[in-house]
Amino acid sequence: MIIINPKDQSEKEIYRLLTSTIIPRPIALVTTQSTDGVINGAPFSYFNIVSAKPPMISISVQRKENGTMKDTAKNIYETQEFVVHIADDDNIEQFNAAAANLPSGESELAFANMTPAQSEIVSVPGVQEAKVRMECKLVKGIPLGGSNDETPACDLFIGEVVFVHIDEKIYDHSHIKIREFNPICRLAGSNYATIGNIFFMERPR
User: Fold this and answer.
1) What are residue 30's DSSP bridge partners?
2) Over pLDDT 70: what percentage of the chain?
3) What is the similarity comment for this entry (predicted)?
């Protein structure tokens, strides 16, 4: 076995190691809104489930090299709300386009040709192009990372899912029809994957 001490590696080397071994990762397009009313949209693969009771999810937003928060993190802290959308085969190119580094006053939704969709509970709009979108209220935001009193390297957000929108074409009696949904996952670098072989395995009791 190869032995690696993270303390002996550069940040880039550790990033490559983590993103190429912790795979596949679900992709969330997160929409937020600034206090000036600008709708921000950005994709994240540092994203997963936290709890089912109440339903909570997590998103980690990495900071810029100088420690400045990205618009997504800044908006979540200020408004306490965000909307999470799941990437699928029909919207992945638009979601990827939303990763463009635009000025804070410009909306990635317009840049990526996505259509705002009014939310039911939160004030932040979602996007119509997603088959699944989850309205979330912030439970906790935690600055993490960095070293030696440096500025944090990321912000971890825990959000409670307060409302869910699902395309009727992929929903059947409380179950998601995975082939109709066809979610896309993130691998390493510029590599992505679709759902391949699906198999059943009973868990021990």
Assistant:
1) 42, 84
2) 99
3) Belongs to the flavoredoxin family.
Q: For 139-192, what is each residue's pLDDT tens digit?
A: 999 999 887 667 899 999 999 999 999 999 999 988 999 999 999 999 999 999
Does pTM surpass 0.90? yes
Amino acid identity at 48: N
- Contact (Cβ atoms closer than 8 angstroms) between residue 164 and residue 131: no
Q: What top-level class would CATH report for the domain 9-193? A: mainly beta
Average pLDDT on 111-130 reads 97
User: Using one digit for the tens of pLDDT, what is the confidence trace for 45-96?
Assistant: 999 999 999 999 999 999 988 889 999 999 999 999 999 999 999 999 999 9
